[in-house]
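Troubleshooting log. The previous structure file for this entry was overwritten by mistake, so regenerating from the original sequence record. Sequence copied from the archived sheet and checked twice against the printout by T.R.
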Amino acid sequence: MMDGLDREVVTAAGYGKERPLGKAPVLLVIDAQYNYVGEDLPILDSIRKFPTSVGHAAYEALPQVLALVRAFRERKRPVIFTTVAPKEALLPFSISGRVHADRKSETLVAGHRGTEIVEALRPEPGEVVIDKAFASAFLGTPLATILTLQRADTVVVCGGTTSGCVRGTAVDAAGLGYHVVVAEDAVFDRITLSHAASLLDLWMKYANVYPAERVLEWVRSLP
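Regenerated output below.
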């Protein structure tokens, strides 16, 4: 993805250096809903039913997401899910005309299957599910307070989409002082270029970007 000059700039400027990890991680599963995962079909077929979905690329990431969820549960570490809820249900004011993309669809209505977390990743009793109205899971939600109560020092991010809610959440987590890990094969996006460029930016500036297997090895090594 990077040409020779880009690589020289990254090296000379000191970007992309490995960052330390903490000892108290929390897993954030971002927006693993049918609206964004869709069906296990090519994306153009998936979006006929779920217009904002990713389709096959999301299903390629789901086994790694599920492996992370299981590992965190086994180690008794918190797993937190986020979902995109209709903004009208979360905000006391109208934001009509203030958003860049027209996402009006019957699939965004509360109670529609599109708003549900995909079956393979359904939260277990007692696990936190945070409804959010914006890209970052921190904006307008109690997530920061929950992480403080959990005494978390590291946030592991998976889910979708890479260039949107994953990136927004990871950047905010880094800004709040958490160690951040993005599992590169456990995130997904609609556009290949957006996915790759976002992972590059996150690796350069904000997070350790690891394959899920490396994250699993680290989690399993924790007390």
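The longest helix spans residues 56-74. Archived copy saved in two places this time.
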